[in-house]
Design brief:
The protein is an alpha+beta fold. The chain is built from three helices and eight strands. A five-stranded antiparallel beta sheet has the order 7-6-5-4-8. A three-stranded mixed beta sheet has the order 1-2-3. Helix 1 crosses helix 2.
Length: 160
């Protein structure tokens, strides 16, 4: 049921998010203490997502989701940055993060293996080309169940 709602939310939200100069990274539902939360993760070119960015998208997207009737239950809406270990879902994500380390899980084993941790070498012909422990793998994007960036902590500024 949540999958259908996510598709409707993405269809209603993505054009608005793109028109405002942001990129939809992911949507998910969670439930805690009887409350349902719809989380929308956004990104923008050239900088970190701010609280003001999240508020802008929340107002714009919230109205569109309501108008479309995309979610048939009571929910709280949260908009945020995807963080350091952001999910990779679209072809563009794999192309954008070429050369970065990721963790990837497949829906079914490929030659006996479902979990991969390595560097994206390329993305061609709907396949993620990865180097894992010095070996090359080509994983069809339609078999990817989950993929996330591995945080590059060397690029993260440490707080004093």
């Amino acid at each position: 049921m949540h999958d259908v709602a996510i598709e409707k939310v993405e269809a209603a939200a993505e054009p608005i998010i793109n028109n405002l100069g942001y990129r939809l990274v992911d949507c998910e539902f969670s439930s805690e203490g009887g409350r349902v939360t719809l989380r929308i993760f956004i990104d923008k070119e050239g900088g970190a997502v701010t609280i003001d960015d999240c508020e802008l998208i929340s107002r714009a997207v919230g109205d569109a989701i309501e108008a479309e009737g995309a979610v048939a239950m009571s929910y709280d809406l949260e908009v945020s940055s995807p963080g350091l270990n952001r999910p990779l879902k679209k072809k563009e994500d794999f192309e954008r993060y070429r050369g970065r380390e990721i963790k990837l899980k497949t829906r079914e084993p490929i030659e006996g293996r479902s979990n991969y941790k390595g560097v994206i070498e390329d993305f061609q012909n709907d396949k993620v080309h990865m180097i894992v422990d010095g070996m090359k793998f080509e994983i069809p994007i339609d078999l990817v169940s989950k993929a996330r960036l591995v945080p590059d902590l060397g690029k993260v500024k440490k707080r004093n």
